[in-house]
């Protein structure tokens, strides 16, 4: 199955999955924005009991700041997160860089903030990993191997690593779709559905190599779900702009301003995982133009519906 067929299947699944409760209501003094609740949707990630609680705590604090109940939802896949925003079932979304570009086109998304150290853009990298004892050393060595991508809408788990591989083997004359078609370059390729799943596919021996975000790689090791000796990083991409929090741009400006003010002033050390000796991360402002690099890749490979 090529990538366009997979994207179509994901879009159908996400339409069925986007059952978020974001009902609109009439405006009133107690409900000035016409919303029964303000819904924030997130792309698939590595939820733990603690992370869910910290997210709920932030939602409670945001509810108080906005004067509207804030609820959070973890989407089944990247397309579902975009679809939820497009249909008005979510007003705020924590997206990946590529799914953000899709959301700007389909759902009127507008970048508000990104998590990172002040003075940066919250950037990260795409890693391509193999088993520590693998004889794969370069991107060219991946030919004829099995590979796990993350999701069609993932920047670090699909779009960027594909660009890196295609740039490494120009003599083969491959297309973007060829990397997702069994037998064209890889013996077989799959979508793992999440960065942690992609990483674990290598550790468990289900694939020879995989793409994973640098942040997930580090978090999985820190959480004890993987050991540094389990994997070997054979390639690191250029820096990718951080995953943005985006809001529906047609919401009342007063509400958008309140959301941005809340995020940029949110200062919960436990939420951000402050560590002694490390400069703390917080939500910092981000401009839409920061994602032009991802837009260029989308245009370069004609990655549209």
Summary tags:
6-stranded mixed beta sheet, 305 residues, alpha/beta, globular, 10 helices, single chain, 5-stranded mixed beta sheet, disordered N terminus
Please characterize this protein's 3D structure.
The chain is of the alpha/beta class and 305 residues long. Helices cover 36% and strands 19% of the residues. The protein contains 10 helices and 11 strands. The chain has helices spanning 3-17, 49-66, 78-86, 97-107, 155-168, 195-203, 214-222, 253-265, 269-272, 292-300, and strands spanning 38-42, 70-74, 92-94, 109-117, 126-131, 146-149, 188-191, 209-213, 231-236, 244-248, 281-285. It has a 6-stranded mixed beta sheet with strand order 2-1-3-10-4-11, with helices on both faces. Strand 6 (146-149), helix 5 (155-168) and strand 7 (188-191) form a beta-alpha-beta unit. Helix 3 (78-86) packs parallel to helix 4. The longest helix has 18 residues, at 49-66. The model is unreliable at 1-25 (pLDDT under 50).
């Amino acid at each position: 199955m090529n990538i366009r067929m997979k994207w179509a299947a994901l879009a159908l699944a996400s339409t069925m999955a986007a059952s978020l409760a974001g009902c609109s209501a009439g405006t009133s003094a107690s409900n000035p924005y016409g919303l029964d609740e303000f819904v924030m949707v997130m792309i698939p990630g590595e939820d733990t009991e603690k992370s869910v609680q910290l997210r709920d705590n932030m939602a409670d604090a945001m509810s108080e700041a906005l004067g509207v109940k804030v609820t959070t939802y973890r989407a089944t896949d990247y397309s579902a997160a975009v679809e939820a925003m497009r249909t008005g079932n979510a007003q705020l979304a924590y997206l990946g860089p590529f799914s953000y570009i899709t959301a700007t086109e389909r759902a009127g998304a507008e970048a508000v903030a990104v998590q990172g150290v002040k003075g940066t853009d919250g950037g990260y990298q795409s890693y391509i990993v193999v088993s520590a004892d693998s004889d794969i050393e370069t991107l060219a060595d991946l030919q004829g191997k099995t590979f796990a991508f993350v999701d069609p809408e993932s920047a670090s788990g699909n779009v960027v690593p594909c660009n890196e591989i295609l740039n490494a083997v120009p003599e083969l004359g491959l297309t973007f779709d060829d990397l997702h078609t069994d037998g064209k370059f890889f013996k077989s390729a799959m979508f793992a559905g999440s960065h942690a799943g992609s990483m674990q596919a290598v550790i468990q021996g289900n694939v020879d190599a995989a793409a994973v975000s640098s942040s997930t790689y580090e978090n999985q090791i820190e959480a004890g779900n993987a050991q540094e000796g389990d994997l070997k990083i054979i390639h690191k991409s250029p820096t990718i702009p951080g995953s943005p929090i985006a809001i529906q741009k047609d919401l009342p400006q007063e509400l958008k301003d309140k959301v941005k003010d809340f995020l940029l002033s949110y200062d919960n050390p436990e939420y951000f995982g402050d560590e002694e000796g490390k400069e703390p991360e917080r939500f910092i402002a981000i401009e839409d133009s920061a994602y032009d690099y991802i837009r260029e890749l989308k245009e370069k490979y004609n990655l549209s519906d």
